[in-house]
Amino acid sequence: MADAQCAMCRAVLESEGSQSTAEGINDGILYLMVFPYILIGGIGFFIYRLYKKGKSTEES
Fold first, then answer.
1. H helices within 17-60, ranges in order?
2. Mean pLDDT score of the chain
3. Domain assignment of residue 40, yes or no
4. Are the C-beta atoms of residues 9 and 25 closer than 8 Å to each other?
5. Three-state secondary-structure class, residue 4
6. pLDDT over 90, % of the chain
7. Greatest CA separation found in the chain?
8. Cβ atoms of residues 12 and 34 within 8 Å
9. Is residue 1, in this structure, part of any structural domain at all?
10. Per-residue pLDDT for 38 more than 50?
11. CA atoms within 13 A on the CB side of 47
């Protein structure tokens, strides 16, 4: 599993000693990181579809 914690989060969680809390923080950070990639991917796909549709109408 990727360690996605910032330095401050890591320091606080290491001093706490609770592994389940650290795993929960990591899962939350990874969950929040996914949405920008999905958004950018969706916009890229939409632009690609528009570009491809425009090219196919020019050839006809």
1. 19-59
2. 81
3. yes
4. yes
5. coil
6. 30
7. 67
8. no
9. no
10. yes
11. 6
Q: What dihedral angle (degrees, nearest 10) is formed by the CA atoms of 15, 20, 22, 27?
A: -170
5, 28 contact by CB (below 8 A): no
Domain count along the chain? 1
Query: Is 2 within 8 Å of 29 (Cβ atoms)?
Result: no
The domain of 40 spans: 7-59
Exposure class string for 20-30: b at 16+ Cβ within 10 A, else e: eebeebbeeee
Residue 20 lies in a domain: yes
Q: Is the pTM of this model over 0.70?
A: no
- Please tell me which residue, 9 or 37, carries the higher pLDDT value: 37
2, part of any domain: no
Residues 6+ away with beta carbon under 8 Å from 13: 5, 21, 22, 25
* Other CB atoms within 10 A of residue 48 CB: 10
